[in-house]
Amino acid sequence: MAGRSFNDLMQYPVFPFILSDYKSEQLNLEDQTIYRDLAKPISIQHKDLEEKYIRNYEFLKVEYARAQSDPRMAMFIAEPYHYGSLYSNSGTVLHFMVRLPPFTKMHISYQDQNFDIADRLFHSMETTWRLSSRESSSDFKELIPEFFFLPEFLENNEGFNLGTRQSGQKVENVSLPPWCRNDPRLFVLVHRQVLESNAVSAHIHKWIDLVFGFKQMGKAARDSINVFHPATYYGLDIDSIKDPVRRKANQTMVRTYGQCPKLLFSSQHPACQLPSEGGAVNLIASLLFMPGDRAASPQGDKLDSSDGWTGKPQPIPEVSGLQWGNYVGSPDCPYPALAWKQSHGSQVMSLVALPTGEVFGLGRSSCLLVMYSKERGITTINTTDVDWAGIVSWGHTDHILRITNKWNQPAVNFLHWNTDEEVTGCASVPDCKLLFIGGTSGVITVYNTKFNKFKQCDIQVLGHKLSLYGHSGPITQLQVCKPYSVLVSASEDGSCIVWDLNRLSYVCSVKSHATPVVALTISDTLGDVASASHGENGSVLQIHTVNAKHVATYDCQEQIHCLVYSTAPEGRSVNVIAGGLDFGIIRLWSSWDLQPVTDIRAEGLGTAIISLTFTHDNQRLFAANSDGTVLMWEKPSTNKIRPPNFIPYL
Question: For residues 483 and 240, what is the distance between their CA atoms, to the nearest angstrom?
């Protein structure tokens, strides 16, 4: 947007400083004093500094007017400005990203083959805010997008020798506020919620006016004390400058000062229309229960829940005002009600939710393959249509994998399997281009496939199979995460391995489980991996980042049989991990730190929960227990019940 690109350090995407408090132990998002004034440039957050930059502009204005009478001087005196450097340039980006390759190498090159002086390196959020907003007369940094999604750039994971400050403190990880426990991951998660908060949304249009809008240039910029060096503005034609010395000088200034974003708005940007209290939840609820979408009682039994919230938990105690979000099981919403259940003759081993709203229930030794159309449905809430679906099954006596692609038709042969080992699991990417098969040997076999309607089974295998080696025991779990382009596998050897879907190569391993991994799930919104193993007295649940860094561990007294993440939008939500336990218990944990949120259970259904899934809109939670019963929870509603859209294939 506005000519900004991650591929150009001089025109790197720019985000605003949004907080002014990086010292407190506690943070209250309802307190307006913790926020930066988005109506003013970063350099004049304190009113007493305004006069300084106004005087600077007036002085340069006089000098520029004087130079116009001398043609020899006119070409060297720039038009007046408040600030000689910009809030975003290559130096700013490399300053922030110094700990993260390949930016480290670029930083060293930028600093004459050395790291910058230790005291000038990015070492503290509080110091950076203080310099940018008050103390420095030449450093007016705004932020980069990584402050809202990439905690790794705040950590010296590569062990670089960044030097020692004059205070004697060695520069390692960036010092972060006490309210995030000096934890980079927690800082980014909170920071993203602050960016999406009502307090910021109500004023962000003022910052857009300064950076992308009508206050970027002209009288509005002068009145807002927002004029930068002329060489920083978009559209400077260096090639038209005839004098070689002046042309070289302008090229150097552009590389050094940075470049303003391209002007997007020539008039005032409208303010964000914030919903009234409860308005967002009511709006979404009204969309979810559209006229014509209601139906009579669905097939199965309708039930009510008598349980309720005993107290709303906080995502983290240090920060008040965070939003859990709008999904079933969220503490911001009514307590989930058991709305439907249906018994089957055999166990439903896996539940798969589709973007279209349907939920498939699959039996043992089977996997769902789905292809989606590229066109969006013409509805209020866009959905993706399913072009084709089939079910792969294995475990047959002839060692042939089969596909069922037509209802009420027998499965057709698909793939001959190695008779020396048994298939233990199968997974596919949503477009059916890759099929992963795990076996008792610990090897994951990869097939390149494509949809071919002229094949009896509709799926054609292309080229030779590939093998992924890394586990020393049978594969127990295979999970694909398309948003992060990874496959995560788990094994009886207690390890989980992250594989790159694009290169089909090893990325990293988690080896912190002492016993076989029995449950695994990946967050589509965070990329985190949650895994569980059984112990002598219950289970051990762990979260690791997609880069295999440990986040949290929870010792559960019950055995965990299955796991699933909710996928509400980050920034507006704190998602949960739902776990299926013994005795019909579904436990919800915070995806941030595994803090228990609540337990959900149905009276009289006390067998283990062996499969779970949230629907694609996160408004329903489906569960299957070990006696073959499928249950559905949703938020209580006075509207007529929608059909469950459950499709069993057992």
Answer: 45
- Dihedral of alpha carbons 246, 251, 252, 256, sign: positive
Closest to 622 in 3D by CA, of 641, 639, 603, 600: 600
DSSP bridge partners of 647: 360
Residue bearing tokens 């390890």:
495
pLDDT tens per residue across span 346-402: 999 999 999 888 999 999 999 999 988 765 443 333 446 788 889 999 999 999 999
Distant-in-sequence, close-in-space partners of 129: CB < 8 Å, separation ≥ 6: 17, 19, 20, 22
Q: How far is CA 385 from CA 382, 452, 524, 648, in A?
A: 10, 18, 20, 19
Binning the chain into helix, strand and coil, the percentages to the nearest 5 are 20, 30, 50
E-strand stretches of 330-453: 337-343, 350-353, 359-362, 366-376, 384-393, 400-404, 412-416, 423-428, 434-439, 444-451
Tokens in use for 212? 């992308």
Tally DSSP H helices, then E strands, for the chain. Answer: 11, 29
Interacting residues of 525 by C-beta distance below 8 A, sequence separation 6+: 483, 565, 567, 568, 569, 570, 575
Cβ 28 vs Cβ 320: under 8 Å: yes
The answer to whether 171 and 121 have CB atoms below 8 angstroms apart is: yes
8 A C-beta contact, residue 336 and residue 305: yes
Instruction: Determine contact, residues 263/213, Cβ cutoff 8 Å.
Output: yes
Q: What is the pLDDT of residue 384?
A: 60
Q: What is the mean pLDDT of the chain?
A: 89
Measured between alpha carbons, how far is residue 242 from residues 32, 73, 100, 237, 289 in Å?
A: 52, 15, 40, 11, 67
Strand-pairing partners, residue 215, are none
Give me 237's structure tokens: 């034609």
Amino acid identity, residue 154?
L
In degrees and rounded to multiples of 5, residue 200 shows phi and psi of -80, -40
**353 close to 622: Cβ distance less than 8 angstroms:** yes
How many angstroms separate the CA atoms of 169 and 152, rounded?
21
Per-position DSSP letters for 163-213, written without gaps between them: -B-TTSPBP-SPB--GGGTT-HHHHHHHHHHHHTSHHHHTTHHHHHHHHTS
C-alpha distances (whole Å) from 594 to each of 26, 173, 315, 352, 543 are 21, 24, 10, 24, 8
Q: Which among 644, 45, 55, 585 is positioned nearest to 351, based on CA atoms?
A: 644
Q: Is the pLDDT of residue 144 over 90?
A: yes
Spatial separation of the C-alpha atoms in residues 420 and 170, rounded to whole Å: 56
For the chain, report the end-to-end CA distance as a whole number of angstroms: 49
**Tens digit of pLDDT for each residue in 520-557?**
999 999 999 999 999 888 999 999 999 999 999 999 99
Paired strand residues for 388? 371
**What type of residue sits at position 158?**
E
- Cβ contacts of 418 within 8 Å, gap of 6 or more: 399, 439
